[in-house]
Amino acid sequence: MKQENTFKTKTGFCHVLPDKIVLSRDGIIGNVANVTVGKSITRILILYGVITIGLLYVAIEGFRNGKMLEPILFVLLGTYLVYGIFTSINNSATPIINRQKIKEIRFKKAFKGLSRSRFEVLFEDEKGKIKKRLIMLPGSMTGGDRETKKALKIMKDEGLID
Hints:
By secondary structure, the protein is of the alpha+beta class.
């Protein structure tokens, strides 16, 4: 493996190999990250759902007790979490993506100070479903611009993006 086919991500490294893309925490492909939530983000989404139910319960109780500001804030936060659940339902946390299964890779540029640059990899999982894997790049405080340029060059050189 060539060093130039590896770039830093927010939480580790991305290795672009001829047959697959591997995400690792420490830069060593043999030590592929054991993602805490596995290849699925279901547990996190369930946790968000439980928090949302709690927020909505507290909001309803607040309205019943004649309060207005806190319940409105709780309803807005709960709505935001529900939106996050629905937009993340097809996301994946898999550390290995077969290049043959990749349908599309999109690059999303960062908004300075608000977000990070990222790649959105759309691929087919083992069950034939289209999933999305986000590859978050480092932020501006940790050399994000330099790593973003390097990552874009690698992805273009490998023919993964235009």
